[in-house]
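Moderator note: this is an archived Q&A kept for reference. The question asked for a predicted structure of one protein chain; the sequence and the answer are reproduced below.
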Amino acid sequence: MKKKQSKKKILNRKKKNLSEKTTFANLEEKTNSQSSTKVSKSGIPKYVADRMARRIFFTTGIPTIMGMSVFVISYFIVTKNIAEIPPSSTIAISALFFLIGLAGLSYGILSASWDRDPGSFFGIENIPMNIKRAKDAFRPATQNFDEKS
């Protein structure tokens, strides 16, 4: 009776058939083909993305931290018998800070300048232009082509 071979032995036998030269040649071809792919020109430049991230950090991070700290401060006040705070007001104040953080997220993205220069501190003048860019980005390509012709 013939003994069954394990799958490992079968796979090892198949792997040994390839020589080292062909293996490394195939590997080099794969890496060269992957690195030669075109880099997309559309998208957000790095300096703009960094500027957006900084703005989002301040306009979203601070209200979010405050929204979480409301629970801690409320707990401290209630446990030390400083004042009686209803849980509904704690939740409402926390929700308000989280909504401010959500608005700050949109503001941080839309107020960032796309120029090399950082722009103004608040960036309010960039909001209409960035809303137009966002609308144009979501339009189908054929509509953009028809409008330009």
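Archived answer notes: The first helix runs from residue 7 to 16.
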